[in-house]
């Protein structure tokens, strides 16, 4: 666990309290897909399954919230964002038809050794909030 004044795991260089913390506490909402993706990475790193559940589109998220509980044998060790963007009318203003994407690599260590996950994630605006829709891994 990190203190609120410690560096945010998402790699922005800001403190957790000035970065992903307000999104995790529900005090703020993501202004775009990259910010939401960074907050979701940090939720994986810190074990905030409730944030993952809240920010996953109900049509594509696991039915059982317990499926989002962190694997105690995995430690997330770094995030690199390769690109992000939005499309659709109102994308910059969180319009109902806005869609977005983020391509990233998340690094981790596990009992089997270090690894990485490369994904291109898709996001949409639902009820005025950016939510994760799905992603393609390679």
Topology overview:
Blueprint: H1 21-25, H2 33-46, H3 49-54, E1 75-87, E2 99-110, E3 113-126, E4 129-137
Antiparallel strand pairs: 1-2, 2-3, 3-4
InterPro entries: NTF2-like_dom_sf, SEC_C_motif, YchJ-like, YchJ-like_M
Region (Disordered): 56-97
Protein name: UPF0225 protein M8330_06780
Binned, the helix content reads: 10-25%
CATH class: Alpha Beta
Task: State the shape.
Answer: globular
Note poorly predicted spans.
none
Question: What's the CATH architecture name?
Answer: Roll
Q: How many strand elements? A: 4
Count the DSSP helices: 3
Strand order of the largest sheet: 1-2-3-4
Structural class: alpha+beta
Indicate the mean pLDDT: 91
Number of domains: 1
Q: What kind of sheet is the major sheet?
A: 4 strands, antiparallel
Radius of gyration: 14 Å
Query: How much strand?
Result: 25-35%
What is the name of the CATH topology? Nuclear Transport Factor 2, Chain: A
Which labels suit this protein?
single chain; 138 residues; alpha+beta; Nuclear Transport Factor 2, Chain: A; four-stranded antiparallel β-sheet; 3 helices; YchJ-like
């Amino acid at each position: 666990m990190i203190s609120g004044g410690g560096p945010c795991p998402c790699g922005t260089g800001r403190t957790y309290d000035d970065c992903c913390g307000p999104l995790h506490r529900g005090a703020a909402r993501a202004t775009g897909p990259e910010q939401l993706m960074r907050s979701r990475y940090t939720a994986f790193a810190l074990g905030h399954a409730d944030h993952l559940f809240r920010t996953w589109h109900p049509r594509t998220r696991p039915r059982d919230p317990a499926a989002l509980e962190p694997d105690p044998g995995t430690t997330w060790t770094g995030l690199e964002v390769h690109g992000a963007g939005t499309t659709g009318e109102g994308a910059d203003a969180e319009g109902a038809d806005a869609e977005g994407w983020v391509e990233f690599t998340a690094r981790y260590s596990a009992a089997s050794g270090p690894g990485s996950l490369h994904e291109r994630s898709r996001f949409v605006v639902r009820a005025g909030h950016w939510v994760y829709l799905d992603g393609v891994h390679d």
